[in-house]
Design goal:
With 307 residues, the chain is α+β, with helices and mostly antiparallel strands. It folds into 2 domains: 179 residues, Jelly Rolls; 103 residues, Homeodomain-like (Arc Repressor Mutant, subunit A, Orthogonal Bundle). It is 43% helix and 19% strand. The protein contains 10 helices and 10 strands. The strands form 2 sheets. The protein has a 6-stranded antiparallel beta sheet with strand order 1-2-9-4-7-10. A hairpin with a 6-residue loop joins strand 5 and strand 6. Helix 7 packs across helix 10. The longest helix is centred in the middle third of the chain and has 26 residues.
Length: 307
């Protein structure tokens, strides 16, 4: 069951008489350390190739693509709320199956490689991670991302800065781009957690494994910090560095995720509450509704209707 994804704000589509091309029409806004571009496609097409010389962050705003990274992946759907990180020299091969009816719109941010290197070096020197087993580093293996709220918010901010005619745009953009790099690394960290690939011998790896195995119990930060072999204060810092959220928010999200899996298997509401560590059914129902917008019963009924 996939996590929810946060949407980046859509931009007003160009009218057809404003387009230079109906397929991947490109509008570019230059900045000192990044090139920001908006791509629009208003006609169905296939086998369109885009190559990027530098590390490039791409985000879908509206419409639908079917794409692959040449020599790296099979074809997959690329939808709003999702981002793809493209390594230097990689080529995207893209189909636009629905662009005649629903134009597609995506953005790209191509980074100056010197800026990326200096930003990561600065992070590792000035604010090294509490977990000495890991450094600040962009992973090109975790390239397909579901946007977290923080990543979507940061992307919206960069779009605003890039399109603004402000004499201090480059200065503001540099701050925003550094935040984007951090949010990307934290989103990649959450991907690794979901895939159970976080290094098991790292402090954060021990903590994540313990949380996932003990969702049915009452979990305290002191207890988890002890398992991770770090102090309570360092544990909070380490967790937010790696994942971008607090331990308590992560635990709640994991409880809700597990609850949804159990509800889909037709477990009773009472049993689901017990297995996910909630003190009683009423409390579980209230928290589930706050998190998902519907009650556990309605969620379970909606699952049954699909089959």
């Amino acid at each position: 069951m996939k996590n929810a994804k946060s949407l980046v704000n859509t931009l007003t589509l160009l009218q057809e008489d404003q387009l230079s091309n109906f397929i991947e029409n490109k509008t570019t806004f230059g900045m000192q350390n990044c090139e920001f571009s908006i791509y629009e496609t208003h006609r169905s097409a296939s086998d369109i190739k885009l190559n990027f010389e530098n590390l490039t962050f791409t985000g879908m705003l509206q419409g639908k693509k079917r794409m692959k990274l040449d020599g790296k992946t099979d074809y997959f759907e690329y939808l709003p709320g999702e981002s793809v990180l493209v390594a230097p020299g990689e080529t995207m091969i893209i189909d636009f199956p629905e662009a005649d009816k629903t134009p597609s719109q995506c953005i790209t941010l191509s980074f100056n490689p010197d800026f990326v290197e200096s930003s990561l070096n600065e992070l590792n020197f000035r604010t090294p991670k509490v977990d000495e087993a890991s450094n600040w580093n962009i992973s090109m293996d975790e390239f397909y991302l579901f946007n977290t709220p923080a990543l979507a918010l940061t992307t919206n901010n960069i779009i605003r800065i890039a399109m603004d005619d402000n004499p201090q745009k480059d200065v503001m953009a540099d701050f925003a781009l550094k935040e984007l790099l951090i949010r990307l690394m934290q989103t990649q960290g959450r991907n690794l957690v979901e895939k159970c690939l976080m290094k098991s011998k790292s402090h954060i790896g021990y903590a994540i494994e313990f949380i996932k195995k003990n969702l049915h119990q009452k979990l305290t930060i002191d207890q988890i910090a002890n398992v991770a072999y770090v102090s309570k204060s360092n544990f909070f810092k380490m967790f937010k560095e790696e994942l971008g959220i607090s331990p308590n928010r992560f635990i709640l999200a994991e409880r809700i995720k597990k609850a949804k899996e159990l509800l889909a298997r037709h477990e009773s509401i009472k049993e689901v509450a017990f297995q996910t560590g909630f003190s009683d059914t009423n409390y579980f129902t209230r928290i589930f509704r706050q998190h998902e917008g519907i009650t556990p019963k309605i969620f379970q009924d909606s699952i049954e209707l699909k089959f």
